[in-house]
What we know:
Layout: H1 17-119, E1 129-137, E2 142-150, E3 159-171, E4 174-178, H2 180-184, E5 192-196, E6 199-207, E7 212-223, E8 226-233, H3 234-237
Antiparallel strand pairs: 1-2, 2-6, 3-4, 3-5, 3-7, 7-8
Amino acid sequence: xxxxRLPRQxxxxxxxxxxxxxxxxxxxxxxxxxFAAWFVSARHAAAELPLAQREVARLHQVSREAQSQIxxxxxxxxxxxxxxxxxxxxxxxxxxxxxxxxEEIAQLRADVAFYERLVGNxxxxxxxxxxxxxxxxQENGAWRYSITLTxxxxxxxxxxxxxxxHVDGTQGGRLQTLEWPALVQDKDAAAQGFAFRYFQQLGxxxxxxxDFAPSQIRVVLRSDGSxxxxxxxxxxxxxxxxx
Length: 243
């Protein structure tokens, strides 16, 4: 037998229209404030956007100009460095040229003074004489010599004769003399001839062994049946920088 159905129970809730309207109003105000904030922000952003774009463009331009200035400064620095190097090189070359010219002028003045004394009346009268001996080193043990002969005793007379050189020194711890044939590396070498009125310069090449230490050079002159020998220290005869 089916039990009897109980009657439905209903809860009666009192109607609150004011509260509902209040909630709707609050929600509407909140949504309105959100919309207003968005609208104001959008308008402000829209107004600031062109300014920002112009500022970005300006900054890009400033950056490009700064980069161009940096590149220009780098080029100027490189140019200045090259110019400085060129200037230093040119200055060194100029100083070298000036030094060489000063040496040439000094030598010319010495030559002029020598010639003036030789042909003038102030120089003491001398017969055949070795005025100077100059030696300069070459490669492979070779030495170039330059010997100046003079005479002003008989100005109208021509001095004729020949010249031989001998070099004294040490080799292997012993005294040794290199004769003319050994010096010119020709066992049949003839003496070097000369003929002059006032002066003459004779030159040539001497060969010295690698283990030979020269101490002096002897110049032997033969003229008119007589022989004259003059001795010069090797070191004082070597040109500066060649010793």
